[in-house]
Amino acid sequence: MAITITKNPHPLSAEKRAEQLVEPGFGRYFTDHMVSAEWTAEKGWGELALVPYGPLSLDPASMVLHYGQEIFEGLKAYRQPDHSIALFRPESNAARFARSAARMALPELPAEMFLESIEALVKADQEWVPTKDGESLYLRPMMIATEVGLGVRPSNKALYLLLASPAGAYFKGGVKAVTVWISTEYVRAAPGGTGEAKCGGNYAASLVAQQEAAAKGCDQVVWLDAVERSYVEEMGGMNLYFVMGKGKKARILTPKLTGALLPGITRDSLLTVAAELGYKVEEGSITVKEWRKGVESGEITEVFACGTAAVITPVGHVKSAKHEWSHNKGESGPITLELREALLGLQHGLKPDTQGWMRKINV
Ligand SMILES: Cc1ncc(COP(=O)(O)O)c(C=O)c1O
Question: Quick one: which of 134, 120, 141 has its CA closest to 32?
Answer without folding.
Answer: 120
